[in-house]
Design brief:
This protein is an alpha/beta fold. The chain is 26% helix and 30% strand. Helix 2 runs parallel beside helix 6.
C-alpha cells in the first residue's frame, strides 16, 4: 500500500520535505555536522562538489574526495533534528518516491558524525578525540520507536540504579555504534567510550545560570558510573539518536567527538576551531 501524502511529504519539485534532496543527490557515505557553516569546512578538502542545497538548518553538499563520493549534511542541534534527517535520508534510499512504496532491495548507508562535545572524565584532556562506542539516549526521542531489540538492558539498568534516575524523566537507552566503522576510525589518537546524549544544553547537561536543576549531582553520578570498565566519557546532543535510528533502519553509524571542554576540570579549549579542523582531517584521511 502506498505511503500517504501526509506521512511522506515531498516538495513540489519531488524532493524530500525538510532536506530538499532527491535520491540522486545523496552519496552512500554521509558526514553529519551540526552547524551549517561547518559543512564547507569539510567540503573544502574535496576534489569536486557536484551538488549543494540548503533549507532551514539542513545544508547539504555532495562531491568527491580521492575518487570517493561523499555527502556532508548539517543536522542542526538535537535528536529531534536527527529524527528528521535520518528518516528522510532512509526514505530517499529505501522508498520509491514515485510509487510511495518500500523498495524490495534495501540499501545500507554509512553515517559519520563529526561533532563537538564536553568530556566528563578528568583524564580526557580538551583537544582530544573520543569515539562513541555506545550512545546513551537521555532525550526520550527513541521511545517513539520499538527499541527493545537494539538496546542494552544490563548497562541501562546499572546506570539507572547508580544514578537513582528520576522516574519522571525518559528511561535511558544505550545503543552500540557500528563495529565496522569503529574499527575503521579508532587509533592511538582516539579513545572509545559511552557518550551521553542530552535533550538540551543547559539544565539537561547540569549547567546552572539562573535556574536550579532537579538533580545537581547528576553529572558527578554519571562521572562515577562504571559498567565492566565502560564509563560515561562525554556529553552532547545527537549521538544516541543517530545510533538508534541507524540500527533500527539497517544503517551503520559512528560518532567522532572533538573534546573542546572538560566539565570535570572546568576547562575549555584555547583553540576549538583548530581541534575541529584536526578531527575533520583525521576523519577524511580514514574514510
Amino acid at each position: 500500500m502506498p505511503i500517504k501524502d501526509s506521512e511522506l511529504i515531498l516538495n513540489p519539485d519531488g524532493s524530500i520535505y525538510h532536506l530538499n534532496l532527491k535520491p540522486e543527490h545523496v552519496a552512500d557515505t554521509i558526514i553529519f555536522v551540526g552547524d551549517p557553516d561547518r559543512v564547507s569546512l569539510v567540503t573544502n578538502h574535496f576534489d569536486t562538489i557536484e551538488f549543494e542545497t540548503q533549507k532551514r538548518e539542513f545544508k547539504t553538499q555532495t562531491g568527491t574526495l580521492h575518487g570517493k563520493r561523499l555527502s556532508v549534511i548539517s543536522t542542526g542541534i538535537g535528536t529531534d533534528n536527527i529524527d528528521i534527517v535520518i528518516n528522510e535520508l532512509d526514505a530517499l534510499t529505501n522508498i520509491d518516491l514515485k510509487t510511495r512504496t518500500i523498495r524490495e532491495d534495501l540499501r545500507s548507508l554509512n553515517f559519520i558524525r563529526i561533532g563537538t562535545s564536553g568530556a566528563l572524565q578528568p583524564d580526557i584532556p580538551v583537544d582530544t578525540f573520543v569515539i562513541s562506542a555506545y550512545g546513551m539516549e537521555l532525550s526520550g526521542m527513541l521511545h517513539s520507536y520499538l527499541t527493545k531489540h537494539i538496546s542494552n538492558s544490563k548497562i541501562e539498568e546499572a546506570f539507572i540504579a547508580h544514578t537513582d534516575w528520576n522516574s519522571n524523566k525518559a528511561k535511558p537507552l544505550i545503543i552500540k555504534g557500528s563495529d565496522q566503522l569503529i574499527s575503521k576510525f579508532e587509533s592511538s589518537q582516539t579513545r572509545n567510550g559511552l557518550t551521553a546524549t542530552a535533550n538540551g544544553f543547559y539544565g539537561p547537561q547540569g549547567r546552572v545560570l539562573r535556574l536550579p536543576v532537579s538533580d545537581s549531582m547528576l553529572n558527578k553520578k554519571m562521572d562515577s558510573f562504571n559498567f565492566e570498565g565502560l564509563k560515561v566519557t562525554n556529553l552532547e546532543m545527537e549521538t544516541s539518536g543517530i545510533y538508534g535510528l541507524s540500527k533500527l533502519l539497517g544503517h551503520h553509524a559512528i560518532s567522532l567527538n572533538a573534546i573542546i571542554a572538560n566539565r570535570a576540570n572546568g576547562t575549555f579549549s584555547k583553540n576549538p576551531q583548530k581541534t575541529i579542523e584536526n578531527l575533520i582531517t583525521y576523519t577524511l584521511d580514514r574514510i
